[in-house]
Every structure is written in C-alpha cells, then in structure tokens.
Design a protein that fits this description.
alpha/beta; 5 strands; five-stranded parallel β-sheet; about 270 residues
C-alpha cells in the first residue's frame, strides 16, 4: 500500500465536493408536489433531512427516503437472486428484502423487482441490462455477480472490464448501485480461481466508491455466530442458499441500504 502524499486531503476534499454537486443535481428531479415549495428550501437542504457535510453513498435512495416518495429497487443477478434453493419465490432474498424495507420504512412504498436468471455470467447480464434493469427506472440496483463466471470459464480480466461497463451504464442512467459478491459454498470453494472473482468485486467497489455486500463474509459469520447451521444455510445442491440463508441475506441487504443512504429522516409520503 502506498503512503498518502501531502496532496491527499486536497484530493479528498475535491472528491467530496464532486459528490455533493452530483447529489444536488439529482435532487432537482423532485416530484411536482415538492417543487411547488422549492423557494422554501434552505440552502443546506436540511429540510430534506440530508446532511450535505456527509454525502450518502446512495443519493437517489436518500432523496426518496427524505421526501417519503416511492422507492423502486431492481435485484439483478443470477440464480441466488432468482431464488433457486428457496421453497417459494416469496422466500427468495428480493421478496424478503421488500418486506424488510417496508417494515423499516413505514409510510414509504417500497418495490423490489426480481431480475435474477439462473446460470448467467456477466455477458448474459449485460445483454439484458437496458431492458431488465434500466428500463424499470429504479432508484437502486443491487447487482449480484461473479458466481457463474469462474464456473463457465470467463476470464477475470473480461469479467472486470464487463462489470465496469455495466456499472457505468447504470450510473449514467441516474441510478444508484450496490454490488453483491459471490456466495461462500463448497462448489465455488473447490473451483480454481473462484475467490479471485469475489476479490475483483470488492476491488471494483473500492475503486468506484460503490458499496459491496460481502456475502461470503456474512455467510461465514452467520455460521460462526450460531445464527444458522451449515445444513440450514444451503439447499441440497450445496451451491444455493435455503430459506434461512435468504432471510439473513435480505436483512443484511436492508441494513446496508439504509446505512449507505445516510442519516435521513423519512417524511410524509409523496405520490409520484
């Protein structure tokens, strides 16, 4: 790791101001009911419950929560997003996430759209990105990726390049994004190089300042802390999670989203 230079504070300050300007631009796209009172908004935007001294990692989510507007999320990925291994679609993590967020954000209409298709690698996902992810116009995409790529022989360099392209397209559409890394499971652990894809997701998140749900670490922690046994965690195929694992993943995702949206206060719901 390189030693920070004396210019680092200047770069950090510039980075923070760029993010603040981006957030301010996003806040201009506010529902008509709120814009009618735009002349009453203080310069600090404290009325929206957003602390401009600490710009949230998910500014579009923060805006929806601050004004109590509907929040639309697309869960994008492969089989563990689709819910393979769950006893029913209602027990897949996207459906559980929707329920968890509705419980935590009373008064806010939360919709989580499941756009997971089993067996897909990064190129398959990019091929349907516009239709399945950008088309529904969500405020947030949770992109679960990197599980099938080592199983299907995708090169690490190509995976990284294609993931960066997908993130660029999502962000250019004005959508927040969270990455979800591959799961911990016996089949992936026995696949040579699989952990390199997990690490690549983490590195991309750090590089682009994109939050990453560290699913492998979470799963190890659940077993270690006695929240679930290994037998309860996995379905019979040893690859996908079972109901209990999906429930824990949804709870962790909800916590991550609310944390990365920042300390906003939910106001009275606004129809869009």
């Amino acid at each position: 790791m390189s030693t920070p230079s004396s210019a680092s504070p200047v770069r950090d300050l510039a980075h923070r101001w760029v993010r603040r300007v981006a957030l301010a631009a996003g806040l201009l796209v506010i529902p008509t009911a709120v814009l009618a009172y735009a002349d009453l908004l203080p310069e600090s935007l404290d009325l929206l419950g957003i602390d401009m001294h600490e710009t949230p990692d998910l500014p579009h989510v923060a805006r929806q929560l601050a004004i109590g507007a509907p929040l639309r999320i697309v869960a994008f990925g492969s089989s563990s997003t689709e819910g393979i291994g769950a006893s029913s679609p209602a027990n897949a993590y996207p459906a559980r996430l929707q329920n968890d967020l509705r419980t935590k954000l009373r008064g806010v209409e939360v919709t989580v759209i499941n756009r997971g298709i089993g067996g897909e690698h990064v190129d398959d996902m990019l091929a349907r990105l516009d239709r399945d992810v950008i088309g529904p116009e969500p405020q947030l995409v949770i992109w679960q990726t990197g599980s099938n790529d080592p199983l299907r022989g995708v090169s690490l360099d190509h995976f990284r390049e294609a993931t960066l392209e997908g993130l660029r397209r999502i962000r250019d559409a004005g959508i927040d994004v969270v990455l979800m890394e591959p799961q911990w499971c016996p089949k992936l652990e026995s696949t040579p190089g699989a952990n390199r894809f997990r690490d690549a997701v983490r590195d991309i998140g750090e590089e682009l300042d994109v939050p990453v749900i560290r699913r492998a670490d979470l799963m190890h922690g659940w077993v270690r802390d006695g929240k679930v046994t290994s037998k309860q965690l996995f379905a019979s195929d040893g690859l996908h999670m079972a109901d209990r694992g999906y429930a824990l993943l949804a709870a962790a995702a909800a916590e991550s989203i609310l944390r990365d949206a920042g300390p906003v206060q939910v106001t009275q719901a606004v129809a869009e």
